[in-house]
Structures are given as C-alpha cells and as structure tokens.
Design goal:
By secondary structure, this protein is of the alpha/beta class. The chain has two domains: 121 residues, Aspartate Aminotransferase, domain 1; 238 residues, Aspartate Aminotransferase, domain 2. The protein contains twelve helices and 13 strands. The strands form three sheets. The protein has a seven-stranded mixed β-sheet, with helices on both faces. Strands 9-10-13-12 form a four-stranded antiparallel β-sheet. Helix 4 runs parallel beside helix 5, helix 4 crosses helix 8 and helix 10 packs parallel to helix 12. The protein is globular and about 55 Å long.
Amino acid sequence: MSIECERVHGINLAQGVCDTTLPPSVGRAAKDAIDNACNSYTRYDGIGELRRAIARKLCLYNRLNTDPETQIIVSSGSTGAFYCACLALLNPGDEVILFEPYYGYHVNTLLAAEAVPTYVTMQPPDWSFTPQDLEAAVTSRTKGIMVNTPANPSGKVFSQAEIEWIAEFAMRHDLFVFTDEIYEYFLYDGRRHISPGALPGMEDRTITMSGFSKTYSITGWRIGYSASDPQWARMIGYMNDLVYVCAPSPLQWGVVAGLNELSAQFYCQLAKDYSVKRDRLCQALERAGLPPCSPQGAYYILANVSRLPGNDSKDRAMNLLSRTGVATVPGSAFFHGPQGESFVRFCYAKSDAELTEACQRLAGLE
C-alpha cells in the first residue's frame, strides 16, 4: 500500500512509520556517540548504561524488578526481541495463542520459528473476549500466549481484569506469556498500562518486550529489548548474539539519553498529543461514513469500510486510495478468517499538516 500510495502521490496512513520529530536530546546523544567513536560492537545484550536505564524504567513505570546484568537483552527492535525469544523458547510445532485482530509480524515471527499461531477472536467495537474464549483456544501443544497491549491494530488496552484472566490461565496451563508493550505510553481517556509480568506469580514465565521506536519516533533505529527470568534471558541472549550480534552502538547511546533525561511530562504530553490526533481522525471517518472503532491506546484506527465497493478489504482499500488518495492497510492483514474484510487500518502517527490533509481528502466521501 505504501508503494501504491507513492505512485498516486497520496497521503500514507498505512504504514506505522511515525513521521513525528524525535526528542532533540536523543538525536544529539546518538550524534555525539558517533563523533566519540562509539561505532564498534557492543556486548551482545547491549551497553551497560542502556540496560541499567531500562531496568530503572521497568521498575518505575512497569513495576518490574529486573537485574540489568542477567535479565535484560537489548535487541534489534521489539520485533527482534520476539524473534530471539521464539527461537530460544519454542520448538517446532509448539502453539502460541494470539488475540485477533493481531499484528502480522507476530504471526510471521512464529511461523519463521516453526511455531503454530492459534487465535482468540475479539469482538468489536471494544475488542472484548471472555475467559471461555481462552479455554477454547488451548490444546496439549499450547506453549505460550502473546499479549500486545496497547494493541496494533485495534488500539485495545487490556484491562486489569483481562490481564488477571490471562495470568490465571497461563499459570494453570503452564504457558509462557510473551508481551509486546511497544505502545505502552500511548494511552487515552485515563487508561493505565498494566504489564502482565508485574502480576503475582508471573515473573518467571513472562517475556516482557518493548522498545523505543514509537515513543521517541525512531522507528528506523531498531532499538528494543526483552526482560525475563535469568534462565530465559540467557537463552534469548544467545539467539540475539547469533542473529543480530548487537543493536547499533551509537543509537543505543541516543536511547540512554532519552531514558535518563526526558521527564514524566514528556510521556504525558505524548499521550495528550496523540489523543487529539485520534479524535480528529475518528471524527473525519464518522463524517465520511466509515465508522471507526475508537482506539483506547496505540496510534491506529480500524474503521468499517463495508459500504465501499469491493469484494474484500483489499478492494475497498484500493477504492479508498483511488477516490481520496489516502492509503490504508486492508483488514485482512490482521485476521486469519473473513472478519477482517470489512475493515481497513489507519495510522495517525503523522504530522498535523499531513493529518489535516488526510481528513480533508476523506471529506470527499461524505
């Protein structure tokens, strides 16, 4: 869709590239690191300053107590962290439960590790599920469950009750809980981020993963991490060394500056700014007759486009692009069944000028 968007000189609300500006201190520290010759390999699990900064952040924000020497692995983005965790902890044929709509990279990462994704399908508009849905998905081959909160593409923020359901379920069935918490600061309407690994009894079985691509608008830097029990971290670290050697050295220093220098106000303002962007795009979609499922977090909107011509979500996304010049992602990218054919995903991690232009173009559908 990004290629098709370029071809028609459209507005790209498809790919989550995050076109906003990075914090000056983060960019400055990375440049200084290059100038100071910090350009060689680091330790396979990341520079000590970054691991210690991540441990402090995990303690203060996520309520996780971790040892930066034995439990944190800095990797090539949160996607790289998940790939290394899958290689380390899953055998071919092991099943991992995903919540649907899912993030496509989660599915493909499992497939690359020869694991088998299975699904709990959540129900719009708030993307709800029940404990009974979890029980229906588990089999004798289930080894883990992936929790993406806040979620891409739905924007769902898992509640305290839902996290507790998952924790009880995981402990009863002896499952790993893989978490993707990359959007942890993008929270709206007073919602709170809950890390599954912080719940009692979940410390040893949870692989907590996140990164800095979205928070600092550095999607191309590929700096992420995992935090887990030392026995799992050791194995994940071996895989990280084998696949990536290490994350980019000077960019790790840039992230250290962000973690050490940015105040709590930065993260609060981030959520406020993106809440405004969400509301603007949701209102434009309502006026255009494309009812949105208003996200609780992250920076994506799934909108119902069933009124547009086409046999499936790809046809409808292409119709929308041809009529308005606004690119989206077909909903079929996020569902293994037919449920996605009525949806497309919009990304609003864009500058105000781009978002204004997109909303004006969508008005042509009214």
